[in-house]
Design goal:
This protein has a four-stranded parallel sheet, sandwiched between helices. It has two domains: about 45 residues, no CATH class; about 160 residues, 3-Layer(aba) Sandwich (Rossmann fold). The chain is α/β, with parallel strands linked by helices.
Length: about 240
């Protein structure tokens, strides 16, 4: 996207990359260090060590989520707040037009896009990739495939999951799904697409919504990227 003339910011999400939990951060806590995590974080170099860290982090997602609940917040709430800070930083850059800001991401990035684009109108155009389904899917069929960073307490009482992104209507959004994506149930992805299509149609903004299905598993391949970039050019140029 940068090569095509966009100014691009890629912020690490809470608990990912530079925002991750370091081994030494939990040293001395009974659930933190184990026989497989005796290395200091700075010593992680090999793929095996990276895989060990990722497995350790995955095993302790529930502990992090409990901690956030006890602190009076939620995992998606923290991620959203940090993404809004990143958006503010991007908007203040001299080379950026703050009236033409977009957001896109795959998988966890698609989840971040749903919350950020749905709740911050500064996002004038969005592309949500590989993360769109229903609460039923996240509960009944695919709960085991998803991170705790998806769930905000009581939110399903008020909004179906795609309706979070629907809050931005009539601002444009494209949702890219993979028909054989193992993280979601195909029929539930179709229901989510129908919900968003109805939201935009009822608001008189049918042309501002694009829901597309591609052949294959969880991915953001060249064909999908070309469609996403064209969508941004259409609405942000």
């Amino acid at each position: 996207m940068a090569k095509q003339g966009f100014a691009v910011l890629v912020p690490d999400a809470f608990l990912f990359g530079s925002r991750r939990v370091y081994y030494e951060d939990v040293e001395g806590i009974t659930w933190g260090m184990t026989k497989t995590t005796t290395k200091r974080d700075a010593d992680i170099r090999t793929q095996e060590e990276i895989n060990t860290y990722n497995a350790w982090a995955s095993d302790h997602e529930h502990v992090m989520s409990k901690s956030l609940f006890c602190a009076g917040t939620t995992w998606p709430g923290v991620v959203l707040a940090e993404d809004q800070v990143a958006l503010s930083i991007l908007a203040t850059r001299a080379e950026v037009d703050p009236t033409r800001l977009g957001c896109a991401g795959l998988s966890g990035g698609g989840l971040r896009t749903a919350y950020l684009a749905g709740l911050d109108e500064r996002i004038r155009c969005a592309v949500c990739v590989g993360f769109m389904s229903t609460w039923n899917d996240f509960l009944l069929y695919k709960a085991y495939t998803h991170t705790w960073m998806l769930y905000a307490s009581l939110l399903p009482n008020y909004l179906e999951f795609p309706e979070i992104l629907g809050l931005r209507v009539p601002l444009p959004v494209m949702v890219q799904n993979n028909s054989e994506d193992r993280l979601f149930t195909h029929t539930e992805m179709q229901k989510a697409d129908a919900i968003l299509r109805e939201v935009y149609t009822l608001a008189g903004a049918a042309d501002a919504y694009q829901g597309r299905f591609y052949t294959g598993d969880h991915k953001f391949d060249v064909v999908m990227q070309a469609d996403a970039f064209a969508w941004f050019k259409q609405w942000l140029s």
